[in-house]
Design brief:
globular, about 180 residues, about 20% strand, homodimer, 5 helices
Chain lengths: ~180, ~180
């Protein structure tokens, strides 16, 4: 399974592609980058540029699913509106490409990657680097966050696959027991 | 000048086209409507439908400018994120079409149309109906709000034109005075 992880933002938008499936819980980085736009341009121009970049990534890497960091209004940062606009573009691009979007809160992402929802940025970057077996820590933080939300979904997927496999195994056991009875 | 007024929202998005210019402060309604999407569909599908409708309106009515009601995060309603996403689509459509977007807060719109920023929905609807010389009050409120934000910009434009005309007249007077000196 190939996941496009997105840490949305209008000034810096982290994009990352990770592959899972080479083994239980194994994930590998395919690509990572940060799309930047300047506040010297109009909001519309910035969104158009970001939409074009999103399309390029979807075309080039052909992911199976998108994993998006969810922003809470309660964060109440000045960028909340523009970040929501970028999240909207991600949902839109997914719909146009027939992809599902899965959203994870920052706490869920941190808990998935580091084991605690209260992890700081350094811990997240450190764990992403180790989990993906990277030579260097990804920079800037938006790149590490995009990788983290990608890994978060890849691991959820692995978990679901394991649960499905366990359920199938259990059904087979019950069927065998029924046949033997 | 033809203005596309937008009252953004994912469940109901008000769209209105108003023309100004037939006389000082005169505005006329060209079209009004509300695009609705259901929460039974994904956010991406709803945004895609809305984007298609926006494109239809831009193609059909060919406005000169877009007037958009600005949402404050301080409103803190559950719909703030999706409303921001729809606002992003409006900015995006404008950029793709080479149009400017002017944003007005609800208070600015109310003050422009009714004379007070504390007007209620009934007052806004009543004034929009009178100003545009409509036989019936526009329904639902999202339609009236889209007309109101359209009228708000049309009147700002008229004001700017008047100021420009006054400035030009003043320059001509000074030039004439200079020539006579």
């Amino acid at each position: 399974m190939r996941v496009l992880g997105v840490d949305p933002g209008l000034t810096r938008c982290g994009l990352a592609v990770v592959d899972s499936g080479s083994g239980p819980g194994r994930v590998a980085m395919v690509a990572v980058g940060v799309v930047r736009t300047t506040s010297a341009r109009t909001t519309g121009d910035r969104l158009a540029y970001l939409q074009d970049e999103l399309d390029v990534w979807l075309d080039r890497f052909d992911p199976d699913v998108i994993s998006l960091e969810r922003l809470y209004v309660a964060d109440h940062v000045p960028t909340v509106m523009t970040t929501a606009m970028v999240s909207g573009l991600v949902h839109l691009a997914a719909a146009r490409s027939g992809l599902e979007v899965h959203e994870y809160t920052p706490t869920e992402v941190k808990a998935s990657v580091t084991g605690t929802g209260r992890a700081d940025k350094a811990q997240v970057t450190s764990m992403v680097t180790r989990v993906l077996g990277l030579d260097q820590a990804p920079r800037p933080a938006d790149a590490a966050d995009a990788l983290a939300v990608g890994v978060c979904h890849a691991w959820r997927g692995v978990g679901a696959h394991r649960r499905a496999a366990a359920a199938a195994s259990e059904r087979a056991r019950l069927a065998a027991a029924g046949a033997a009875r």
